[in-house]
Amino acid sequence: MKITVVGTGYVGLVTGACFAEVGHDVMCVDNDESKIAMLRRMEMPIYEIGLQELVERNVAGKRLHFTTSIEEGTDFAEVIFIAVGTPPGYRGEANLSYVEQVGRTVAEHMTSYRLLVEKSTVPVNTGMQLKRTITKYIEGGLDFDVASNPEFLREGTAIEDAFQPDRIVIGVESERAAKLLREVYDPIVKKSGCEFLVMNIASAELTKHASNSFLAMKISYINAVSRVCELAGADVEQVAHGMGLDSRIGQKFLNAGVGYGGSCFPKDVDAFIHLSDQLGYDFQLLKEVQRINQNQREHMLQKIKHELWVMQDKTIAILGLAFKPGTDDLRQAPSLYFVPQLIEARAKLKLWDPIASDNFKKLYPDLTYCDDILDCAKDADMVLILTEWPEVRDLDLKKLKKAMAVPVVMDGRNVFDPAEMHRLGFIYHSMGRP
Ligand SMILES: NC(=O)c1ccc[n+]([C@@H]2O[C@H](COP(=O)([O-])OP(=O)(O)OC[C@H]3O[C@@H](n4cnc5c(N)ncnc54)[C@H](O)[C@@H]3O)[C@@H](O)[C@H]2O)c1
Question: What is the band of 53 on the pLDDT scale with cuts at 50, 70, 90?
Fold first, then answer.
């Protein structure tokens, strides 16, 4: 089956390559010429485990093509997925200008029936707006459908998630659209055995926002509990374990730390609050989720200040810049909160990240970047852990202590065991643990 995917970012490129892998013929479109040029040279514009091999295999198999021309993409296939960015606008609302632009351009160039599928995360009723836009720009009388197919993949495990999804959600208004999307997903549904849920467009759009906001809420909940643990002398890791064994709660997303970041949770919670406001509901619960998240960072900064007292000229080794392990994505990463704060306090920074350093260098070219964790920690007055990369978990702690000027570890991800750290002679601070 022929498929066009517009937007070759973290979602579009993975989706396009995975559709090709299951046998479809896929055209990936992006208006960023440098991205398409890189892809044509078989260089990946983003880091995702297994992506390079997947793209190479499917380009060689002539099932995956790249273009900057939306006209070509519109001609190529009946089904067109929209996977462009929906970044936060000025007041937290989703910026839908890229989605609108794609809808308009497809409408101007289509010459027969097309199904436009929103894969980008969009507020409820975007489907309706997209339909109005297409109707306005289309050559008289052509038939089309709009559908919603929210994406739930996670950076770091995106390919695995695409082939083994927990569920596939589609929102449609016609049997024709449902049939086409069943055909698109048939190989994945058959192989993974996942549920294929068909609902109306508004419900599909809302399923995405409601899911992401719920996960963010779970993180903020355990972070709030971690603050009480600190005050009460309890250990949040033990509390979370005890809670998570209840099958109604579950262990996942109960990790206390410096809070969530990334390209989705902060912006999707913002957008859901904004959307609810517009619809007439004041979603106070989600406002608190955001406040707790921001507060965790400020709380950690206070701990750093308290421990170092005078920050000027102290060397701080930051381990982890990406918002989570397995990605080079820096959007809303905690590092982007801490680095400017620590620079302002005139601390000397040394930075380590196995994948995201190059992206960080574009923002802060003059800082010191290290390829090796122990080099980074050498002569440091403090190690600050912001991303729980496996390389951090596997650190030889004795060597770490030896490398540092003063063995102070500020652990924003609760990677190490406090008792073990104290036994080894570290001054160790983490989140919500005695
Ligand atoms: N990143 C994730 O983990 C994730 C997961 C689920 C859903 N989402 C959602 O998916 C959407 C895309 O996210 P992303 O992380 O892939 O974004 P991204 O910024 O990595 O990619 C978006 C791509 O769209 C391209 N683009 C923008 N306007 C275009 C146009 N008019 N024509 C062609 N290409 C255009 C950009 O050049 C860019 O390459 C967002 O709505 C996001 O919320 C993201």
Answer: very high
Locate 65 and state its tokens.
Answer: 């093509």
Q: With contact defined as beta carbons under 8 Å apart, do 44 and 93 qualify?
A: no
DSSP state, residue 81: E
Q: Distances from the Cα of 418 to the Cαs of 382, 403, 430, in angstroms?
A: 16, 20, 8
pLDDT category at 140 given cuts 50, 70, 90 is confident
With tokens 């508004």, the residue in question is 202
> Reduced to 3 states, what is the DSSP secondary structure of residue 223?
helix
Of 4, 6, 8, 10, best ligand 1 pocket probe by most atoms within 8 Å of the beta carbon: 10
Nearest alpha carbon, ligand 1 atom 18 = 9
Q: Could you tell me the pLDDT band of residue 91, with boundaries at 50, 70 and 90?
A: confident
Amino acid identity, residue 245? Answer: L
Find out whether the beta carbon of 83 lies less than 6 Å from any atom of ligand 1: yes
Average pLDDT over residues 295-314: 96
- Does the model's pTM come out above 0.70? yes
Alpha helices in 193-331 (DSSP H): 201-232, 236-244, 265-279, 284-308
Whose CA is closest to 324, among 316, 334, 309? 334
SS3 label, residue 317? strand
The confidence score (pLDDT) of residue 88 equals 87
Are residues 103 and 73 in contact, defined by beta-carbon separation less than 8 angstroms?
no
Q: Is 264 a catalytic residue?
A: yes
Does the Cβ of 28 fall within 6 Å of ligand 1? no
What local confidence, expressed as pLDDT, does residue 31 receive?
A: 97
Enumerate domains of the chain plus CATH numbers: 2-199 (3.40.50.720), 265-429 (3.40.50.720)
Nearest residue (CA) to ligand 1, atom 37: 32
